[in-house]
Amino acid sequence: GVSSLMNENFVLYPHSLSSEDLKTIFDKKPDWIVISVESSPTFLMPAADLARHLEELDVSESKAGVKKPSEEVTPPSQETLSEAQKCVVDLLSIPAKRLDLISISHQATLQEALETLHNSGFEALYVERRVTSTMKSIAGILTRKDIEHFYLHKQ
Prior knowledge:
Blueprint: H1 2-5, E1 10-14, E2 16-18, H2 19-27, E3 32-37, E4 40-46, H3 47-63, H4 76-84, E5 88-90, E6 99-105, H5 110-120, E7 124-130, E8 136-143, H6 144-153
Parallel strand pairs: 1-3, 6-7
Antiparallel strand pairs: 2-5, 3-4, 4-6, 7-8
């Protein structure tokens, strides 16, 4: 089923982030970022796209002559973080590949997952697992590409 193929290396964040949020995202080294809009998982973005965007921002700042004073006592990463804490990044406005997300039960088969994607026109699923009778959590991520790759290479 979907649980056997899902990617569990993801983080869930709202679309509007502080730089401190950004630091914690990369501490976990995720493959994917699940972006929630109004508390609902809505988009899936490769974490590499966010990293690339942040690198480009750093490069453009250094080319513009924006230099941070270096002090031996404070490591540069801490200094950068404290200066940039005011900064907010909107994950919906940066250049990145974003896939529309739809939910599926962790008990679903891969065929049901493909049908859900086909019927919705979406490219990715978040696999939900019931925690209590009223609460669910995201157990993993599954893309159309993952499922098709599985079927193509299944012997």
